[in-house]
């Protein structure tokens, strides 16, 4: 698996067999390691969330910093600082901070994916990884034939992660092509649909947003709109507690101002 070229991996998401959004995993090489970013628009299970995970890795693939932000029914932010110099791992969650000793190499969720993809272990062998919240045990399962991105079925390596009952699938090139995780009574799935090579030094664009919900910069007009205004019929402005008033021809009525007479 060579990450010398910036690469973006796009996935479709499914939950309990139903479409559940999309996510993108971007790997960017740096002079001192890698920058890994996972962005996701998750529609199921409810509530809908926008997620962004970011990890800065050293040349050995271990994280220096990890940030996680989840927006949905409120916002949740977490930052983790891995300091080998101070021998501490500092976790910040809003107003709550705590530190634990950095006694053995630790991983975050993103660095763990890349580390598993680089494993060279036999079927049935188990590898142990240390995380901030505990340990992860990775077991190599027999290879499977899997269709990805509309291509013909190919042999992929399969790893099972415990705890959590997650499965990671990697193709011959070392790309994570499928990820599954048990969430509640159902299975959450991410399937690779596109691999895109990015220009060096240029970041990928954010995941698409709902055009009705996405804010537009002040003073910027929508493309294709005439300068004088919208091409759509004007909408009546609804005043709180009043229904919109219309003329007979459908145009919004203007409220007449009552002139004050002076004697």
UniProtKB/TrEMBL annotation:
Compositionally biased residues, Basic residues: 253-263
Which top-rank group of organisms is this from?
Bacteria
Recorded hits in InterPro entries, A to Z, give: DUF3108 (IPR021457)
Cite the record's Basic and acidic residues compositional bias ranges: 213-225
Location of region: Disordered: 199-263
In this record, what's one Pfam family? Answer: DUF3108
- The name of this protein is DUF3108 domain-containing protein
């Amino acid at each position: 698996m060579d990450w010398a070229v910036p690469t973006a991996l796009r996935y479709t998401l499914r939950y309990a067999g139903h479409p559940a959004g999309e996510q993108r995993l971007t790997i960017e090489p740096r002079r001192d390691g890698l920058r890994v970013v996972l962005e996701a628009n998750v529609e199921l299970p409810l509530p809908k969330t926008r997620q962004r995970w970011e990890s800065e890795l050293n040349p050995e693939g271990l994280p220096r910093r990890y940030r996680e932000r989840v927006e949905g029914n409120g916002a949740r932010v977490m930052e983790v600082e891995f300091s080998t110099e101070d021998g501490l791992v500092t976790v910040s969650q809003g107003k709550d901070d705590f530190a634990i000793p950095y006694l053995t190499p630790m991983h975050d969720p993103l660095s763990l994916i890349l580390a598993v993809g680089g494993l060279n272990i036999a079927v049935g062998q188990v590898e142990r990884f240390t995380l901030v919240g505990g340990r992860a045990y990775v077991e190599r399962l027999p290879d499977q034939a899997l269709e990805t991105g509309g291509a013909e079925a190919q042999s992929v390596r399969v790893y099972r992660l415990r705890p959590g009952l997650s499965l990671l699938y990697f193709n011959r090139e070392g790309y994570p092509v499928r990820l599954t995780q048990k969430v509640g009574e159902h299975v959450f799935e991410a399937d690779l649909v596109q691999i895109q090579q990015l220009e060096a030094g240029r970041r990928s664009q954010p995941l698409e947003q709902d055009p009705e919900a996405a804010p537009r910069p002040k003073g910027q007009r929508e493309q294709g709109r005439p300068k004088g205004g919208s091409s759509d019929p004007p909408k009546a402005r609804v005043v709180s507690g009043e229904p919109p008033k219309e003329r007979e021809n459908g145009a919004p009525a203007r409220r007449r101002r009552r002139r004050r007479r002076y004697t």
